[in-house]
TrEMBL record:
<dbReference type="Pfam" id="PF13649">
    <property type="entry name" value="Methyltransf_25"/>
</dbReference>
<dbReference type="InterPro" id="IPR029063">
    <property type="entry name" value="SAM-dependent_MTases_sf"/>
</dbReference>
<feature type="domain" description="Methyltransferase">
    <location>
        <begin position="71"/>
        <end position="117"/>
    </location>
</feature>
<dbReference type="InterPro" id="IPR041698">
    <property type="entry name" value="Methyltransf_25"/>
</dbReference>
<protein>
    <submittedName>
        <fullName>Methyltransferase like 27</fullName>
    </submittedName>
</protein>
């Protein structure tokens, strides 16, 4: 880790650790609004691996040429996933996020065909009807309530025939733990990382 990143690490750990304790949706979205200007720098310090891991999972699931596939990046944030997608040849990328400031950062990258303000579970996802949906989240103890609620939403979409699950892949080294509290039994302690999970779904076309 570079000297500047080492110097900033305690500040980043404190900021991200505080976010992990936010359960109210409006407060969570407000936090991300305020975090947007420094988000990319902070997650780099945290060694956040979700974007590259998600795109690796996606690439393995798709047998055809990447440019033929339409990707809906849910909770796209500043567009870090789109950077990884573009590097692997994916060209048809759309994104949604609940934070206008995060979407401004994503828009500035110029990698998305379309971006929409949308919060999963609160509003319907935008068209197109078909395509793949890739989501990621932490799998450590402090995030288990959110993970459970997210999976309930995903299950309801699948049972309704709207989405089809292609993969649910757990990863040990997701990002650096922000405190010892996150290193409880059942989580990965390898090199100070916590686990995460990647979900990949195909959004089904609605019958006319």
């Amino acid at each position: 880790m570079a000297q500047e990143e080492t110097r900033r690490l305690p500040q980043v750990l404190a900021r991200v650790g505080a976010s992990h304790g936010i359960t109210d949706l409006a407060c969570k979205l407000r936090f991300y609004e305020e975090w947007a200007p420094e988000y990319d720098q902070d997650v780099a310090v945290l060694e956040y691996r979700a974007p590259s891991l998600a795109v690796e999972c996606l690439s393995q699931a798709l047998p055809g040429p990447p440019h033929d596939n339409l990707i809906l990046d849910v909770a796209c944030g500043t567009g870090l996933v789109a950077v990884e997608l573009q590097a692997r040849g994916f060209l048809q990328i759309q994104g949604v996020d609940g934070s206008p400031e995060m979407l401004k950062k994503a828009q500035a990258r110029g990698l998305y065909h379309h971006l929409s303000l949308c919060t999963l579970g609160q509003e319907p996802l935008p068209s197109p009807e078909g395509g793949l949906v890739c989501l990621t989240t932490r799998a450590n103890p402090s995030n288990l309530p959110y993970k459970k609620a997210l999976e309930a939403t995903l299950d309801s979409l699948e049972h309704a025939g709207a989405w089809e699950q292609l993969a649910a892949q757990t990863v040990d080294c997701w990002e650096l733990a922000t405190s010892e509290l996150e290193m409880m039994p059942g989580t990965s302690t390898k090199d100070g990382f916590i686990p995460g999970i990647i979900y990949l779904y195909r959004k089904q076309k609605v019958a006319q």
